[in-house]
Structures are given as C-alpha cells and as structure tokens.
Design goal:
With about 170 residues, the protein is an alpha+beta fold. It has three helices and seven strands. It is globular, with a radius of gyration of 17 Å.
Length: about 170
C-alpha cells in the first residue's frame, strides 16, 4: 500500500523494499540479537528506525499487533527513508504544498500515540497552511486519488505503459 503512494507521487521512483539486517549486525542496545527490518530504497539503503522495534526496558511488544499498526509503522519508516535519501518532503499535500505525516484519523496528537480501538486505517495528515488548520489528506495507499488532474492522467498513462497497454 505504501508503494502505491510512492509510485503515484514520485514518478520514476522504483518500489521500496523491506530490508532485513541479520542478527549481530545492527541490534539495538540491550535488545534481543535478532534480525531488524527496515524500509529501504531498491539498492538497500535506508534511513531511520526499524519497523520491528523492540525495547525491553519499555516492555514493547516484539512486533506491531495488527495490520493497521504495521501499515502506519511501514509508512512512517518509508517517509524517513525517502526524505533523508532523496532530500525532499514526501508525501506532499497538494493544497498547502507542505509535507504530510502519518497518523490515526481524527487523532489529536501528531503521531505515535497508541491508536484508539476504533481508530481505523492510518492517514497522511497535513498540518495545513497559516492559522494551524489541519486535515487528513488521504488514507495511506490512496494518495493517487488526491493528485491534481494532470498528474493523475500522467500516472494512468505510465501504469498502462508498464502493463503493456497504450
């Protein structure tokens, strides 16, 4: 789902991958020496936190416990990798021309609070322009629907070419 957003908003960018760093090569201090999973560029470079975070002092669960939390965690890690390695804000709110962030719909904090039981799927969220007005831009995985018309048409054309159509 995150790669759908990458392909829709970064023309020419290849899909991101999940990169596993084997045990013993990059384990957290005091953590269990097991493989860590990162969201990486196709060439294996990554930036930011692993997606299977575990801190024994904080009594964290070894892995996210549901699909929506996994999606939010992967989207956040993908954003860190893209922003740091491509040196650009991603994804961008087309209305305000500012970078967005992952969070739970209708949340009151910026992001990583535990999702409420009825949170729903994660969204890309814009802090808005002047005046502190904020809004949900789209569900993670659905950014193509928010593109301006010309970019949406170009995306459809490139998808047809990739799939062998005209």
């Amino acid at each position: 789902m995150v790669n759908r957003d990458v392909m829709a908003t970064l023309p020419g960018q290849d899909a991101l991958i999940l990169m596993v760093v084997p045990p013993g090569q990059h384990s957290p201090p005091g953590g269990i020496d097991r493989g860590q999973v990162y969201v990486a560029m196709p060439d294996g470079r990554w930036h930011g936190n692993q997606v299977n975070v575990w801190d024994p002092e904080e009594d964290d669960p070894p892995e996210p416990h549901d699909a929506e939390t996994v999606l939010a965690t992967v989207a956040d890690a993908a954003q860190s990798t893209i922003m740091e390695l491509l040196w650009q804000a991603w994804p961008v709110c087309w209305e305000h021309k500012t970078g967005t962030h992952v969070r739970w719909p209708a949340a009151t904090a910026d992001f990583y609070e535990d999702p409420p039981d009825d949170a729903g799927p994660p969204v890309w969220w814009c802090r808005g322009g002047q005046g502190g007005i904020f809004h949900d831009v789209s569900l993670v995985g659905e950014l193509a629907a928010t593109l301006p018309g010309k970019q949406r048409r170009e995306l459809r054309r490139s998808e047809r070419k990739r799939n062998g159509g005209r």
